[in-house]
Amino acid sequence: MALVLAVVAHFAAGALLLLGLRRRPVVGAVVGLVVLAATAVVVVTEGIGVDSPLRTTVEWIPLLGFNFSFALDGFAVVMALLVSVLGFAVLAYSIGYFEHDSTFARFVGLFMAFAGSMTGLVLAADLFTMFIFWELTSICSFLLIGLNDKSASARQSAVRALLTTGAGGLCLLGGVGLLQVEFGTTSFAQLAVLSPSGTIAEAAAVLLLFGAFTKSAQFPFHFWLPGAMAAPTPVSAYLHSATMVKAGLVLLARTSPIFADQGVWRWWVVMAGVITMLIGGWQALRQVDAKLLLAHSTVSQLGLLTVLFGVGSPLALYAGVAHLVAHAVFKAGLFLGVGVINHELGIRDVSRIGAARARIPGTVAAIAACTLSMAGIIPLLGFVTKEKALVALLDSEVGQAGTFALWGVVAGSVLSVAYSVRLLRAVSGVGASGTDASHGGEPHHTSRFVALLLSSPVVLTAIVSVVFGVAASQLGKWLVAPATSLDVDAKSKLVLWPGINTALIISVVVIVVGTVVGWRAPLAVSAGRGSRGERAFDGFHDAVMIVAKRITAATQSGSLPMYVGVMVALIAAAPITALLIDGKFPTTNYVTDSPLTVVIVALTVVLALGTVFVQMRFAAALFLGGVGYAVAVLFAMRGAIDLALTQLLVETLSIVIFLLALRVMPRRFSLSSRWNPRSLRVAIAAAVGIAVPLFALAVNGAGGAPSVSQEYFARSVDEAGGRNVVNVILVDFRGFDTMGEITVLAVAALGVANLVRAAERERRNRTSHGAGR
Amino acid sequence: MKTAPSAILDELVDRWLAKVATLVAVYVTFRGHNAPGGGFAGGLILGSLFVLQYLTGRQPMLRGRPIRHPEALLGAGLLLALVTTAAPLVVGGAPLESHIWPLDVPLIGELKVVSSMFFDLGVFVVVVSVVLMVLQALGTRGAAVAQDRLGSAQ
Prior knowledge:
The complex is a heterodimer. By secondary structure, chain A is mainly α.
């Protein structure tokens, strides 16, 4: 229950902010900090050093097997701690960052809702639960990217992110559905036992991959993430580098042990990861804006993590978990640090942020430390984990995919080192065009307390990067439980100095080449009008809109005769097709049952012919009413009193309504028009006239399955307290149908009323316009 | 405004027909659970009364008072049906599950009140208000539009 409480508390705190504490966001933020801290404590006390993971299930729709199930296994502990501890740091930072900002209350509310969704996601013990929280994180991300809702580009980025991750969410849902239907479970543990295989399992795996790729910004869905940097710094630091984009990796980590040895999985993941790593690294190298540099570097690092989880060998999983932690720490620090510079000096341009060194030396030093960790320099945490990744890839024993992954990661790492070197040069002010702070936008004077709030999380992440780098073996021990919770064989350790081995030699080469590339790379080519991916997305988006408009224009002509024509033609076509396929034409006819029936049927036919042949609309309406009455008599003769009664009343009212409407119409039918020729109308009418009665007789004579009416008769009095079965069916057994029908009726009435109202308005406008002239 | 010939109609429609039709409509609605009838038929019967009132040049009236806001009535009817549908969920039943309250009414004897009666009442109200809305739209207001249309067409 503690797990559920922890998740719910986040949402409660968020709701408090959004609804109640709008005026005092700082108080709300403190409440949020308490919730995050409490969650961390719960996770540590309940999750660490226990024999079997804490599990909780909350029933949602037990009838359909939809439940929320959570499990606090090792991997969940690490992820939940990242979410709550980094969340704590970022939220504290944001109190300073959003000082005097009116959007702070909304930010904190959404931030807490996001932290809750993310906690739920990492604790999820099955795919269904994960999907629900997955979608919640997408929505929170959309709202947070668009926090500055007055900026058109922020709104556009938010929509891009939502549509991309939303499409991925739909794929995920498809995969979840396939697994549930085919294997009867979406629980990670049970799926691992079943080890699904076959076409359906593969299709599900591909769908899950699409979900993971969109969320974690993997090629070809990598374009939305840099755009998401329109959000304020705390959002970028937390959602779009440290936590939410890791959701895709969580999914990969959870499902890799299940699917990794199946045909498509490993190649897809490794290809996507390597391509993403290279594209991200190359783009990061070209950015002028420090925040965008970090955004692209995040894409690149996510690529590396995807490769590790995709290879899926025990050692790779262990390395993946370790590097995931390292990345979350140093990237959060980098984003927050660049945010501090932006906040203090108003600049993000890499050629000018060197000016910050004089003003906030502590923060700049921390940024430098985090950058070194990102580059993978000894003795920082990034070195240790990247070394582990190389070792894992060197002996992954998964064939060509593994070799490809290794070379891809080496190339990507060169780029990582290169952009790290650029960032390092920029913040240290070496080779910068000028170190004069007065060139920076508008310097911001902040109080000591705010300055402390802003800088301490940056410094802390740097300290963590250093301490865990030096004390790598301790961290390595702690990470055994998380890794083995994904795959029991994933036991390994971390060491600061591995001794001279292949991986170390590769590392040295990478660092040397990367430094040269980073130092030599031409400074900063501005991307200008959005990346290629963004443009492709926008082009696709516009194309969909155009096609939608054309389809609407083609099918929704607004012509009443055409709508009615299409509908009744289908009514004729469906039963005729069914009869032709089944070949069960009616053998009995009820027409010749009694002389009276013959008379009534003959009368009906005559009235129907009259409706068709008469030229006056008014007369046609009366004939049609006559047909209805005659049919009511037929109903009554066969004992369907309820039906007859209703038919009689409906027919009466219909005629009157017809007559009221006919006042607006010309007196006679228009005989023919080019697109609606008489022959077509005759053909449709004849087809319906033949198909419907034939079908009715065939259905009545078919009688394959036992009729439900006996059962209804039996249950009517006892269960529904009524002796009139027809009515009991309407209000009880099939009451849902009735509910739907009266809703349709109500909507139709509202439609009629509004159509007339619109006509009135048009008329008023016309008369006032005429008077004006 | 009223001229002499309509006096008979007044007497007939307002005095007698209105009462009888209302009574029949309510009767048909309530007996529906056990004998032919029900909310739909009952609503149509009351609707027919309004149509008749309209055709004889009156506003749809009940007990001498015109019904002004059929939209509100429509919403109320839908809501009643919806609440009846959802109510069993609150006590852990299936949607629309019927509950039967036996009642002992003096002089009449034992009566069974079934919860689905409220659903049927919702149907009744919806049907009545739909008729009212259509009458209002196509009748009173539609007439003006119609005149204009035909006028401009000529």
